[in-house]
Amino acid sequence: MASRTATKDIITLRGSSAIVSEFFGYAANSILYNRGVYPEETFAKVKKYGLPMLLTQDEGVKTFIANLTAQLSKWLESGKLQRVVLVIMSKATNEVLERWNFSIETDNEVLEKGVAREKSDKEIMREIQAIMRQIASSITYLPCLDEPCVFDVLAYTDKDVSVPFTWIESDPKLIDNPQMVKLHSFNTKIHKVDTLVSYKNDEWDEQ
Amino acid sequence: MEAMEGEGRSEMEYTEIETTAECLDSSVIFHVVTDILGFVLFMHQQIPSILQDISLEFDGLQTEYKELEIVLAQAEVKASLRRQHAGRMKEVKQGIKRLEKVMKTVSGLRTALQLMISEIPDIQRVMLVLGTSPIRPQHVYEMCFSHGKIISIGAGDFAKSKAAEGLSRKAIRTLISKGAGSDSHAGPTKLFLLVKAPTSFNMPLHFLPKRDFRYSKKIVPFRLRFKCKAQFKETEGQIFVAQTADSISSKDCTPNDLIWFQCRHVVKGLVTKTSPTED
């Protein structure tokens, strides 16, 4: 019988930071597409994580996400990033309707001693795939967003982090009496990312 | 997930989902089951996108095919354009062929379920089994419906209400929170629908009886129990059932009179060229 043990790959802090920041980029795109924040026709299909993924072709949004992931990668490498939250708000009222929360735990030993870890790339991709599927199927379990929406991204960092001028301090943009769904996690053995979506309860939605 | 040896399947293992609705009518049950079915197929990598999107894609391809047929039937089409359209027609045909089987099976399954629910409005247990065979599953999803007032809707009236939508969403959120689909592996398999019904139930075009059906004890199922606001009271409840000669009620049956029926429409997963590695 063939062994099912996957070959393990060496993962460094830099490599893990790249995986995680890239994941945020694709996850953000997928959320914006699947929640209808931007029209379908403004997205193009690409293959990533073994799945058809949608990427925005809107130059403004593209640049925003590219700059975002670059900065997140730096913070991840320094071990200063605790959480990233993609917030979806009503365009008309600015009321927060959804919060896609990605919490990050970083292996301190890796930060302090610069050691590497081992985990199969395939296994990491499989875990990320599961999360992407959950985002892609969000229309089946989250209330419809029936109005024009806008989005923002919040980064929760350590206090001593260096912040570019393009980022400003913000309130947490919380939802009143939110409902929550915990999604899957993925773990590179250096960074563990937990995903949770909280949303404003729809009147028709069962609590 | 594997069960420990000797671990039974007790009533405690159900995750309860309460609905604020007064009752679980046939339409609600139908949509909850079919929405969960779509979710299971997608999360377990048996279809490349959610069922709603595949359905739209399939309809779009069929429409495009008909339009291309009409264009190509015109004599005055330029040769270059004709070749272009013919090429596109070939692609569209391949797309239709790829999706046709799964769409046809899902459609057959939905029809079968509607017919069954119309005949047995107080349906209590439904099971979705994913695997090469029902007795050796990879994953099992069991749904139990605790009825309040039993209301049979008019024949053909399975329109999706807001209540059905809300309950489906709640059910899928529950499954996600419980980790449904997290241990899925690529590779096509089959999805079987089983429904528990009185032994007198007879719909051989769509359902086959499976007396003494049991699946492998190694599998720990996801179990959901749907409860409505007004639980049925034996002494003072009322039963509303469509007055047809064929209506059967599960309530009149003892547990021994109920057996599993397997739907003949078995959904076969689509082979997708996905791989877990980066492209």
- The Rg value of chain B, from CA coordinates, equals 22 Å
Number of strands of chain B: 10
Structural class of chain A: alpha+beta
In the CATH classification, which architecture of chain A applies? 2-Layer Sandwich
Q: Which value, in Å, is the CA radius of gyration of chain A? A: 17 Å
What best-fitting shape of chain B do the alpha-carbon axes yield?
A: elongated
Largest interface: A-B, 31 and 37 residues
Number of domains of chain A: 1
Strand content of chain B: 15-25%
The CATH class of chain B is: Alpha Beta
Instruction: Note the overall shape of chain A.
Output: globular
* Largest sheet data of chain A: 5 strands, antiparallel
Runs of chain B in which pLDDT lies below 50 for 5 or more consecutive residues are 1-11, 232-246, 275-279
Distance between the termini of chain B: 30 Å
CATH topology of chain B: Cell Cycle, Spindle Assembly Checkpoint Protein, Chain A
Q: Numbering strands along the chain, what is their spatial order in the largest sheet of chain A?
A: 7-4-5-9-8
Helicity range of chain A: 25-40%
Alpha-beta classification of chain B: alpha/beta
Keywords (chain B): Coiled coil
Protein name (chain B): Melanoma inhibitory activity protein
Organism (chain B): Actinidia chinensis var. chinensis
Organism (chain A): Actinidia chinensis var. chinensis (Chinese soft-hair kiwi)
What can you tell me about this protein's structure?
Chain A: One of its GO terms (biological process) is mitotic spindle assembly checkpoint signaling. Chain A: Its main location: nucleus. Chain A: Pfam families: HORMA (PF02301). Chain A: Belongs to the MAD2 family. Chain A: Keywords: Cell cycle, Cell division, Mitosis, Nucleus. The complex is a heterodimer of chains A (207) and B (279). Helix content of chain A is 31%, strand content 32%. In chain A, helix 1 packs antiparallel against helix 2 (59-78) and helix 1 (13-34) runs parallel beside helix 4 (121-136). Chain A has helices at 13-34, 59-78, 108-113, 121-136, and strands at 9-11, 43-48, 51-56, 81-90, 96-106, 117-119, 149-157, 179-187, 191-199. Chain A is of the alpha+beta class and 207 residues long. The model of chain A has no long low-confidence stretch (mean pLDDT 93). Chain A has a single domain (10-159, 168-206), classed as HORMA domain (Cell Cycle, Spindle Assembly Checkpoint Protein, Chain A). In chain A, strand 8 (179-187) and strand 9 form a beta hairpin. In chain B, strands 1, 2, 3, 5, 6, 7, 9 and 10 form an eight-stranded mixed beta sheet that branches. Chain B has helices at 26-43, 51-73, 79-119, 162-177, and strands at 15-18, 125-133, 136-146, 150-151, 190-198, 207-210, 222-227, 239-240, 258-263, 267-268. Residues 1-11, 232-246 and 275-279 of chain B have low confidence and may be disordered. Helix content of chain B is 35%, strand content 20%. In chain B, helix 1 (26-43) packs across helix 3 (79-119) and helix 1 (26-43) packs parallel to helix 4 (162-177). The two termini of chain B are 30 Å apart. The radius of gyration of chain B is 22 Å and the shape is elongated. Chain B is of the alpha/beta class. Chain B is built from four helices and ten strands, in the order E-H-H-H-E-E-E-H-E-E-E-E-E-E. The A-B interface holds A 47-52, 121-123, 125-126, 129-130, 133-134, 136-137, 139-143, 181-184, 202, 204-207 and B 17-20, 35, 38-39, 42-43, 45, 48-50, 52, 162-163, 165-170, 172-173, 176-177, 179, 181-182, 184, 186, 274-279.
